[in-house]
Amino acid sequence: PPVMLVELLFQAACVSLFLSSGQGRVYPARKKPASFAVERRRVGPHVCFPGSGSGCCPGWMLSPGSGKCTLPLCSFGCGAGSCIAPNLCMCPDGEQGITCPEPPGTCGEYGCDLSCNHGGCQEVARVCPVGFSMAETANGVRCTDIDECQSAACEGTCVNTEGGFACECGAGRELSADRRSCRDMDECQATPCQHRCENSVGSYRCSCRPGYHLHGNRHSCV
């Protein structure tokens, strides 16, 4: 029995020594978790390896400065704001959303055109419609109506309209073909007299055939 006890103790010591020496050999070889962590730190956040061409997760792209996936993407654009996260904009007024409203244009209600000369471009206000002039207001450029009657050459009365003007003639006169001068209106063409009609400048006169006299209404014959 004493011999058997010594033998058992020796075997237990050998097993213990084998285990301790085995762990010493196995542990240093398990480098995968440590190397993966180093690789993860090297490429930065928002990295998705499988099935992604750039390696960045959806909604992110490589930042030109660092080469890491730290630049968020906003599909709808942020206008004058900035993209702070995937499809999340920080707007100039402090509001956040998937996009930012465009600021009011500086060219007024008729918008802007792009004028380019020798490679340089600038936004310029569009030309106002005929009969309007361009004016600076607190809200930007506006097109205001021109009062053409200040310089229009109407023979009769000038009436200003939005974007234009109209000439009017007095009683018994009508506009000529040039729409500015006046001519006498031949009222006799409307046959206002029962028998005879004689046109005059700005008026007319009725008369009757022999054997009749003019009625008091100055048109009928009795």
UniProtKB/TrEMBL annotation:
Domain of life: Eukaryota
GO CC term, one of those recorded: extracellular region
Signal sequence, renumbered to the chain: 1-24
Keywords attached to this entry: Disulfide bond, EGF-like domain, Glycoprotein, Repeat, Secreted, Signal
UniProt-listed SUPFAM superfamilies: EGF/Laminin
GO MF: calcium ion binding
Subcellular location: Secreted
Broad class of where this protein is predominantly found: secreted
PANTHER family xref list: VON WILLEBRAND FACTOR C AND EGF DOMAIN-CONTAINING PROTEIN
Name of the protein in its database record: VWCE protein
Organism: Prunella fulvescens
Gene from which the chain derives: Vwce_1
